[in-house]
Design goal:
Strand content: 25-35%
Largest sheet: 5 strands, antiparallel
Bound molecules: flavin-adenine dinucleotide
Helix content: 25-40%
Structural class: alpha+beta
Number of strands: 14
Number of helices: 11
């Protein structure tokens, strides 16, 4: 249908971004192609060292999934999105396709080795997530393509990760967020991934903050240095959620806390995470 109708069609998944945009008349598609009637595109599986999420899998299904809980950062993300109503309808595929600069999934999944499987009548292709989103609300998807699945490689042993957001209230998007994944070998950080959300047009990979930890002991000094580099890497805009400077400060604090939780999880500690509410 998508191929037949062309660019006058929009896919409808959970409708939690598209329907509000249509109500505000920011989106005015002539046709909606409803994915909700297609069987077999909502699932969570573990296969060949990876977690596979069908595009129509709801945030709430991921929040409550024992398979997804193998990667606690994925649970942190799913459980923290808006409120129950939004989580019951909204989908992982819709979130990635929407590429909202304030969305949670892309920031979290970019700390992982994640791929987006794209399907059209011409066949299928897999795009690394860090090449999928090119700008705010912009992806490499063609008009006749849809996301069929998102895959996340299970990280090596000794890896811990955490996602924290600062929010004014549960049912709103975060003001700022930070996702951190660390692979530890004893006291030494072998690998680090640090992504910042809501402080740029797309999630920002804080490369200098990662370098401040990689190959080093995670001391208070190293954590402070990573947080300072993350602050510098952020590129926020002032808006009704706060000034640019306020968001930079938030990002530094969130990175610090997320590093601490990631290290503890890497050691095998069970740490429950909740976003921070103003
Ligand atoms: C009050 C409220 C608060 C929210 N707070 C948050 C929040 O804190 N954090 C957060 O991350 N999100 C938040 N959201 C957004 C929510 O997570 C949405 O579910 C999500 O952004 C879009 O998913 P959806 O399934 O609803 O997609 P839809 O709204 O149905 O679609 C969104 C876009 O993606 C396209 N699309 C959908 N599925 C596919 C697919 N499989 N392949 C290709 N294109 C597709 C659609 O055509 C459309 O352009 C909030 C939404 C609301 C209403």
């Amino acid at each position: 249908m998508l191929a037949q109708i062309g660019d006058e069609a929009k896919l409808l998944a959970g409708g939690q971004s598209l329907i509000p945009l249509m109500k505000l008349r920011f989106a005015n598609p002539r046709h909606l192609v409803d994915l909700n009637f297609i069987p077999g595109i909502s699932y969570i599986k573990e296969e060949n060292g990876a977690l596979r999420f069908g595009a129509l899998t709801r945030h709430a299904e991921i929040e409550n999934s024992e398979i997804a809980a193998k990667l606690p950062i994925i649970h942190d993300c799913a459980a923290g999105i808006a409120d129950v109503q939004v989580r019951n309808r909204g989908t992982i595929g819709g979130s990635i396709a929407e590429a909202d600069p304030s969305g949670d999934w892309a920031t979290v999944l970019m700390t992982q080795v994640a791929e987006v499987r794209c399907l059209s009548h011409n066949g299928e292709r897999a795009v690394p997530l860090n090449q999928f989103i090119t700008d705010a609300y912009t992806t490499v998807l063609a008009d006749d393509e849809l996301i069929s699945e998102i895959t996340v490689k299970i990280p090596p042993k000794g890896t811990g990760a955490a996602y924290l957001a600062f929010k004014r209230a549960a049912p709103v998007y975060p003001t700022a967020s930070a996702a951190v994944q660390l692979t530890m070998e004893g006291d030494i950080c072998k690998d680090a991934a640090i992504l910042l959300g809501c402080v740029g047009l797309i999630p920002i990979k804080a490369k200098e903050a990662e370098s401040a930890l990689r190959g080093k002991q995670i001391t208070d000094k190293a954590i402070s240095s990573a947080a300072e580099s993350a602050r510098a890497a952020a590129d926020p805009q002032s808006d009704m959620r706060g000034s640019a400077e306020y968001k930079r400060t938030l990002v530094g604090a969130l990175v610090k806390r997320a590093i601490d939780i990631a290290v503890r999880r890497a050691r095998g500690e069970h740490v429950e995470v909740s976003h921070i509410y103003a």
